[in-house]
Amino acid sequence: MKLNRRTLAYKCSLWSSLTRHSPFTTHHRFSTYYDTLQVKPDATVDEIKKAFLEQSKKLHPDIDPSNPDLHKKFVRLNEAYSVLSKSDSRRQYDNRLRLRQAEPFRETSGAQRDRGSDLNSRPGHGFEDEQQRYWEQFHQPSASQQAAFHSTQRRSRNLKVFGYCIFIMLAGVFVHYIGFRKLEEAHSAFMDKKDRIIQEMYEEAKERARANGLKKQQEILRQKHAAFMAKYNPPKPGGDDK
């Protein structure tokens, strides 16, 4: 009886030891990108995309900005989708995953964490740079977010149109003012020139009238004097002609 109890205790201890050091246990094994997206390793691209959209709605940082762990999960979700959504990077990841699962059980938990971190590292594709692009491509905002976005865009367009109208109106006023000033200057110059011509013509006519008038007056005076002499000083009869 004591022997059976000892044998049972030994088996339980051995199983517990194997469970702690086994890389296939659920509690201690590293989390793969498939676990992050909650899909099977043989999932299709459409299934991966669908899972990414569902998880991104739950883990988006805007849900709780004060939760830094939510941001980390969201970043890892984007990394997982970046790797598994492309055939080349997914093939490399699956190969490294198979190599990792084929290692012996003698590895310690610290080494498992190191290798798990190395396995989940990016395979040289710059996924952090692509996170924003992937999110913008596949994120589906809510109706209220879409309405707010369109309202903001519409307000921005209206402000731009209003600014353009004000600019065109001010430009038109400025052009009309410049045109009016130029027309006024041209009209003033034309009137000044016309006044000068008229003044010159007047001065010339006045001078000509003054010169001609003096001769006319002298001629009239001579004629009047001759008539007066003929009337009041008749020639004496029998007078000698000189």
From TrEMBL:
InterPro entries: DnaJ_C4, DnaJ_domain, J_dom_sf. The chain crosses the membrane at residues 161-180. It holds the Pfam family DnaJ. The keyword Cell inner membrane does not apply. The keyword Transmembrane applies. Residues 32-97 form the J domain. Signal peptide: none annotated. It comes from the Eukaryota. Residues 97-117 have a biased composition (Basic and acidic residues). Keywords: Membrane, Transmembrane, Transmembrane helix. CDD domains: DnaJ. Residues 97-126 are annotated as: Disordered. This is DnaJ-like subfamily C member 4.
